[in-house]
């Protein structure tokens, strides 16, 4: 996931700290479900949604974890990369929350309504969905080294084995009658 932000400076802790080294970005972003928030201070819907998103994030930290200021990262104000991200993830309206799997693939194109409706429960759903999808689906190149077989291959093998067993039983039966 850090590859998406390679060479970019992200602000943390309300723009007091910068994450700009590759190691810092990897530690903050890799192997995590990532939410990209797109909003504007001039948008009334964004101003209404921002406190809900803040509460959503705080509830994700849980009561047992101390608050971590580096949890919320942002592009510096006016950074043109924000527009590139909007285009890349086809953000057409604000507020928008794009949910990305740890691989960087889009899990939810805009999760604003889901966050409003379900609250923090939806984050666990996203994590589970990301794990299931990443575990169950393999890329086409994963199959390059395997022999190509049809979907009916196991049935044909079973039928062939059953036919072979019947032939062997028949041969043994014929052989016993000759003695």
From TrEMBL:
Regions annotated as coiled coil: none
Gene Ontology process terms (BP): photoreceptor cell maintenance
Cellular component GO terms, alphabetical: mitochondrion
Protein name, per record: Nucleoredoxin-like 1
Top-level taxonomy: Eukaryota, Metazoa, Chordata, Craniata, Vertebrata
């Amino acid at each position: 996931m850090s590859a998406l932000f390679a060479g970019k400076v992200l602000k943390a802790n309300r723009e007091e700290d910068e994450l700009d080294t590759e190691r810092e970005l990897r530690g903050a972003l890799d192997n995590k479900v990532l939410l990209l928030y797109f909003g504007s201070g001039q948008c009334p819907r964004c101003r209404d949604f921002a406190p809900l998103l803040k509460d959503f994030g705080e509830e994700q930290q849980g009561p047992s974890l101390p608050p971590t200021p580096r949890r919320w990262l942002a592009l510096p104000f006016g950074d043109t990369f924000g527009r590139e991200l909007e285009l890349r993830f086809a953000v057409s309206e604000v507020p928008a929350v794009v949910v990305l799997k740890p691989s960087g693939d889009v899990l939810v194109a805009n999760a604003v309504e889901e966050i409003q409706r379900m609250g923090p429960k939806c984050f666990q759903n996203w994590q589970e969905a990301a794990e299931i999808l990443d575990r169950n689906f393999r890329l086409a190149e994963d199959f390059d080294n395997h022999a190509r077989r049809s979907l009916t291959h196991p049935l044909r093998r079973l039928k062939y084995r059953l036919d072979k067993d019947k032939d062997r039983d028949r041969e043994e039966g014929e052989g016993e009658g000759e003695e």
